[in-house]
Amino acid sequence: MNRRPSGTDGSDFSYRMVVDNRYTKVAKGKSTLSKVLVIQAVVVLVGVVDIFFTLIKKEPLETLAAAFSFITFISIIIGELGRKRSRVNFLKFYMAASSIGILGSVASIIQLKANTPLIGSNLLKISCVFAGLFIQIFSVIKTASLIGNMSPPKRAS
């Protein structure tokens, strides 16, 4: 049963408002970024659990890896705030800080690989960092697209 809106004969369809395509892209971009942030947070938390087990086993803490994991985790929180509140500056900070965090993690893995053999927990660290790197590349692309769609269009002069 397709009912006509009250107060109209149905001929006013040409006067109805249409949502600009940019707003639709922003909504889809926010949804995608939300999923990417969750996946990125899970990967970081797996790395943090590995750091936690390193502390339990009384092994020396890799402070570089721990610091960059912390930076990445904080940037994810700021990215989520920027996504929810449509704050371009928060999203830009998220892109920069999370990129620094993942690049620092890659550097710590390169340092680790040079000093120790690839066994058990080291293999987990390496796989987490490279999964994080792949997710980071995807998140930067999606976040940049979202920022571009959130910004008002430039007017031709």
Give a verbal description of the structure.
- The structure is a single chain.
- The chain has about 160 residues and is mainly alpha-helical.
- The protein has a domain at about 45-150.
- About 75% of the residues lie in helices and about 0% in strands.
- It is built from four helices and no strands.
- The chain has helices at about 20-55, 65-85, 90-115, 120-150.
- The longest helix has about 35 residues, at about 20-55.
- It is elongated and about 75 Å long.
- About 20% of the residues are buried.
Which word captures the global form? elongated
What is the count of β-strands?
A: 0
Secondary structure tally, helices: 4
Multimeric state:
single chain
Distance between the termini: 50 Å
The helix-strand sequence is HHHH
| Proportion of residues in β-strands | under 5%
Helix content: over 70%
Summarize the structure.
The protein is mostly helical.
Secondary structure layout plus pairing:
Layout: H1 21-56, H2 63-85, H3 88-115, H4 120-150
